Amino acid sequence: MTAPRPSDELQLSLPHLNSSECRPNASAESSRYVLFICTGNYYRGRFAEAVFNHQAQHLQLPWRAFSRGLAIHLVDGDLSEHTARALNQRGIDRSQTGATRVALVEADLTLAERIIALDEIEHRPLIRRQFPGWEERITYWSVADIDRLSIELALSAIERLVRESVLEIVADIEFTSAGRATPA
């Protein structure tokens, strides 16, 4: 089964993809998408997006991540200093995440094959209220915001969970390549 190709409207909602990825017949055509949902699209989700894209690129996987926020009006600025510093410390280029915060819209949910909300306690009620019908289609992690979990623990947990997600994708690809049934 082929992943849906981003329409022109959806390409506009993916500002961090470079122009070659947005052209027809380019790599975006065969890309599959992971969506990371957070509150402000400023800290946790952007870190997850960058780590995923860095790992997927390194492994040459046909997957790209993007991130969105449920309440981007709650923060100012483009990217958390904590996220920028953590990416720099890990040698992950900032281009692996979007240029700025972007609000979640239903088209983003439709585009993504895998949808991950960073904190179930915080995000499930917002998803339920803003996007009825999507609540049960999302995988929820338990990575709390700065007010409930230290930055170091949060970023370490995200990095580990992203790594596990990438390994699941690699296993799915290997399973499919071996001629077995396509995973759901």
- Would you give the CATH topology? Rossmann fold
Give a quick account of the main beta sheet: strands, pairing sense, barrel closure: 4 strands, parallel
Order of helices and strands: HHEHEHHEHEH
Number of DSSP E strands: 4
- What is the averaged pLDDT score? 84
Q: What fraction, in percent, of the residue positions are helical?
A: 40-55%
How does the helix and strand content classify structurally?
alpha/beta
Task: Using the coordinates above, name the CATH class.
Answer: Alpha Beta
- State Rg: 16 Å
**CATH architectural type:** 3-Layer(aba) Sandwich
Strand content: 5-15%
Q: How many domains comprise the coordinates?
A: 1
CATH H-tier superfamily = Response regulator
In what order do the strands lie side by side in the largest sheet? 2-1-3-4
How many helices in DSSP terms? 7
Q: Identify low-pLDDT runs.
A: 1-28
Model description:
- With 184 residues, the chain is an alpha/beta fold.
- It has a single domain, classed as 3-Layer(aba) Sandwich (Rossmann fold), CATH 3.40.50.
- Helices cover 42% and strands 11% of the residues.
- It has helices at residues 8-12, 19-22, 44-58, 81-89, 106-111, 120-130, 151-177; strands at residues 32-38, 63-69, 114-117, 139-140.
- Strands 2-1-3-4 form a four-stranded parallel sheet.
- Strand 1, helix 3 (44-58) and strand 2 (63-69) form a beta-alpha-beta unit.
- Mean pLDDT is 84; it is low at 1-28.
